[in-house]
């Protein structure tokens, strides 16, 4: 399905593992001349740090990269004051992981983000893993994670202007 | 994608965990003035019993609730005689779980339900978890469960008038 | 959604476990008068061998069956010389499993297949399991498998003329 190529408002981009969801989001912003990449992943070890550095250099100079594992709302608010550059958050599920590991109040964090998003003047692309289409996990932490992720995606999708499900690198329009 | 707002025939509503599939189905029947809610989940403990009671009261007086973990076919047949109220079955995968734990003949139960559904005069919304998009589970019971669920969904979808996949609370029309 | 019934080019058919993806692909080729079935699954034991034999006989005489767990590229090239019969590969994820168990260079095998596919003169339907929509697996081999599968699907989808996601036996058009 064709995607509207114009960047505007809030766009939730869901996909499975290695589905091409991040690349799809990056390409959308590349076509708009670049933007701000908010990386929520943490560099746990040298291998991960190298991968992050490699990704950063591959995006090129039209991108500014901000690494923020937890305080996504503050970064989004700051970006909103910098002008009209579009923002890519990659990704919400890593952010959720970090919040859970840091023992944050998850619902309060979701409330905060969902309170901020509608007031932003910049296009925001939010990438996230769809993780709810498998068998109930035996691990309690995993069950909690996918429950949080599912509820969170519903809330973001409700306020989003566009929702896309990426399958094998191809966007399917959901909303 | 827009959904036909009129309730008629058999509507299979698939979705992942916390995808908003039940809420979507409830809203469809709320707009039609209410209906009969067939809850297949079992109250294993006080917490679950409380959740069921909470859900029941939140649906309000336009709903009648019937709890039936196993004999779904008898309940559907009885509802069909009561008049034209639409029915919501929530959900098929919990029903399948109960059938497996009760050591029933699964294929015979599927045959029975698929034999009854086309003859019903009331709109029936069947909610079920799509569980087949993950890695093959290591647990044999889980593998058997997802095989049964997959085959069952195919059979219901074939005789259904509508099939919807709910992603992040948003309906995608499948059939 | 309606599917173009004419067979041409490369068609990637994704689906979950027991989603009806193989049956969908078989029906497409049945309507075209039959074809060549390339089975990548291995008969590990008598039960599996019996299932394969049963499937083979159920497809009937309009099908030729070739069993090839590893050297898919050689078989496709050979089929291309035999004339214009359409080919069904069932399935890519079993092929990937066999490659991993045989300790092959996965990326080199993907390169080889993606190099061959665009030059084939016959319609090729490639069936594969979408496995990336669940929780991150705890098993490292499973994580590697789904990473490979995801990247592989992206590459095939990019060069494919059609991509279909089968949900409960019903095709959803992706590309």
UniProtKB/TrEMBL annotation, chains A, B, C:
Assigned EC number: 2.7.1.156, 2.7.7.62
Record carries keyword Nucleotide-binding: yes
InterPro entries: CobU/CobP (IPR003203), P-loop_NTPase (IPR027417)
GO molecular function, one term: adenosylcobinamide kinase activity
Cross-referenced Gene3D superfamilies: P-loop containing nucleotide triphosphate hydrolases
Active-site residue numbers: 55
Keyword Transferase tagged: yes
One BP annotation, GO: cobalamin biosynthetic process
Keywords, alphabetical: ATP-binding, Cobalamin biosynthesis, GTP-binding, Kinase, Nucleotide-binding, Transferase
Pathway membership: Cofactor biosynthesis; adenosylcobalamin biosynthesis; adenosylcobalamin from cob(II)yrinate a,c-diamide: step 5/7; Cofactor biosynthesis; adenosylcobalamin biosynthesis; adenosylcobalamin from cob(II)yrinate a,c-diamide: step 6/7
Pfam families from the UniProt entry: CobU
Binding site for GTP: 15-22, 39-41, 56-59, 67, 90
Catalysed reactions, as listed in the record: adenosylcob(III)inamide + ATP = adenosylcob(III)inamide phosphate + ADP + H(+); adenosylcob(III)inamide phosphate + GTP + H(+) = adenosylcob(III)inamide-GDP + diphosphate; adenosylcob(III)inamide + GTP = adenosylcob(III)inamide phosphate + GDP + H(+)
Role: Catalyzes ATP-dependent phosphorylation of adenosylcobinamide and addition of GMP to adenosylcobinamide phosphate.
Family the UniProt entry places it in: Belongs to the CobU/CobP family.
Protein name according to UniProt: Bifunctional adenosylcobalamin biosynthesis protein
């Amino acid at each position: 399905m064709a995607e509207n190529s114009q960047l505007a408002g809030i766009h939730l981009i869901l996909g499975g593992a290695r589905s091409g969801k991040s690349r799809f989001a990056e390409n959308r912003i590349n076509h708009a001349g670049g933007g701000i990449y908010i990386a929520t992943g943490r560099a746990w070890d040298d291998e991960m740090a190298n991968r992050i550095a490699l990704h950063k250099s591959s995006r090129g100079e039209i991108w500014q990269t901000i690494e923020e594992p937890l305080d996504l709302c503050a970064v989004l608010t700051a970006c909103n004051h910098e002008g009209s550059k579009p923002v890519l958050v990659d990704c919400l599920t890593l952010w959720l992981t970090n919040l859970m590991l840091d023992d944050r109040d998850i619902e309060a964090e979701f409330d905060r983000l969902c309170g901020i998003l509608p007031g932003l003047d910049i296009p925001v692309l939010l990438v996230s893993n769809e993780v709810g289409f498998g068998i109930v996990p035996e691990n309690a932490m995993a069950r909690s994670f996918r429950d949080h992720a599912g509820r969170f995606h519903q809330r973001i999708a409700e306020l989003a202007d566009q929702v896309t499900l990426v399958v094998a690198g191809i966007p399917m329009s959901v909303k």
